[in-house]
Structure formats: structure tokens, C-alpha cells
Amino acid sequence: MLKTRVITAVILLLVFLGAIFLLPRSIWALFCGVVAVLAAWEWGGFLGLASRSRVFLAGAVGLLLLALTLALPGMLGISDGFVLQGWAFGRFLLVPSVLFWAVAVPLWLRYRWPLKSLPLGLLVGAVVILPTWLALVQLRALGPWPLLAIMAVVWMADIAAYFSGRAFGKHKLAPNISPGKTWEGALGAGVGVIAYGWILRTTFPDYLDIAPLTLALGLVLVTAVSVIGDLFESLLKRQAGIKDSSQLLPGHGGVLDRIDSLTSTLPLVTLLWLVFQR
């Protein structure tokens, strides 16, 4: 099992790094579209859809994203004049996404509402998947390194939470949703990302000219939102009676299992960036 997990992780890392550094922005958008299509197929599993319906849902998402990529290159950061155009389009997906994660999901976790309604399930899936695709594409306009650094915040939070939780974890964060998560792990995640931000700011002061307190607060906010994203997917899997979103990635579960924290954090980061760059 461990060998399979390591092999899959290495392959995923090589594919991702090759895509983010080597693909042109237009092809990167299509690459992210493939990820979104697979996520949509898995989302159909949360909704209890039959195999044919899941394929139809994934195909519909793929056609929509392909149409957006071809029709709105400027708004996606694929061509010039991005920031203003990106805001003009992005706000229609990013603002609802941020409100969903900041307001609706904490209540959802509190009351553990089920996804019984198909229209509601499809709407929530759209709010989760489409803004994540848009954020990945728009943030790529900054360049591969900035996008990688932003995504690394989530990865650093996961790593710090894992080790601090194992070492000090005693108080359960959400025992009825994800028994393995603890408040100590969440605190460790916050400390870890602040340390990561300090290293980045010290190493690249010209590229990260942000007041230390502002940077720390922003990183803590992103960490908190990433935990919410992780817990939300855990709740949906528990309600659907499944351990993983799929078995597409041997040893790692499915696509949604790998990007659950990114679905909540990347739209927030993209929205803040577009607002401050206008």
C-alpha cells in the first residue's frame, strides 16, 4: 500500500510540475479542465448518480469549460489585458464561492445537512468545482512559481497539521465528521504556514512586499479556509457512505481527495488578488 501510494505521488508530482511549468496558458486551462471533469464525475458519486449520469455530468462540465476557454481567453489570463477582464468575469464565480465557504459551509458542518436534493447537489458542485478551475487558470497568469507557492501554503498546512496532530493531538476538531483531526493539528498548521510565509518573505523580499502582520493574518485565514474545505468533503463522503471520492489515484483515493482544501482556498486567494490589482 505504501509503495503504491509513493509511486502514485511521484507520478502526480511529475505530471503537475511538467504541466505548470511547460504548458502554455491555453493548454494549462485545458489541463485544469480535465481535472475539473474528473472531479465532476466524482461529485456525481456524492449525489448517488448512476454511472451514465455521472459521465453525462462530467461531459457537460468539460464542454462548458472548453467553451469558456475558447470564448474568454482575456478573462482567464490566457491573453493580455487580464486583470480588468479577469475581474469582470471572475467575480461572478469567485464571490459566490468565497461566500459559500465563509458563510454556508460552517453552518453546513454545524448542522450536517445532507445533499438530498439533486438540484441543490448540482448547484453546490458547481460552486465547488468551477471557481477552483477558474482560480487555477487565472493564478497561472502570475507565472508558475507564484501559483506553486500559493498551492504550497495548503500543502504546508496539511504537513504541519499531520505532524503536530500526531505529536500533540488530544482535542478533536470535528469528531463526528473527521475523527483524526484535532485542534492541536489545526494550530500546528497555522504555525507551519506562518513559518513558510516568513521564509518566502525573507528569501524573496522584492516579490512579497507585504507587511509581516498582514501576511501572517492572510496565511492564517487561508489555513482556516483550507480546513473547512477538507472537513466539508469529509462530511460529504461520510454521508455518502464512502471512504474516498473514487479510486482514480491508487493509494490516494480520488481527485477531490487531493484538491479538497484547494477548492476552498484558491478562489479566495484569486479574488483577493484581483481586488487589490484592479
Automatic annotation (TrEMBL):
Main location group: membrane
Reactions listed under catalytic activity: a 1,2-diacyl-sn-glycero-3-phosphate + CTP + H(+) = a CDP-1,2-diacyl-sn-glycerol + diphosphate
Coiled coil: none
Family per record: Belongs to the CDS family.
Entry protein name: Phosphatidate cytidylyltransferase
Keywords from the UniProt entry: Cell membrane, Lipid biosynthesis, Lipid metabolism, Membrane, Nucleotidyltransferase, Phospholipid biosynthesis, Phospholipid metabolism, Transferase, Transmembrane, Transmembrane helix
Organism superkingdom: Bacteria
Compartmental location: Cell membrane
GO cellular component, one term: plasma membrane
Enzyme Commission (EC) number: 2.7.7.41
Pathway: Lipid metabolism; Phospholipid metabolism; CDP-diacylglycerol biosynthesis; CDP-diacylglycerol from sn-glycerol 3-phosphate: step 3/3
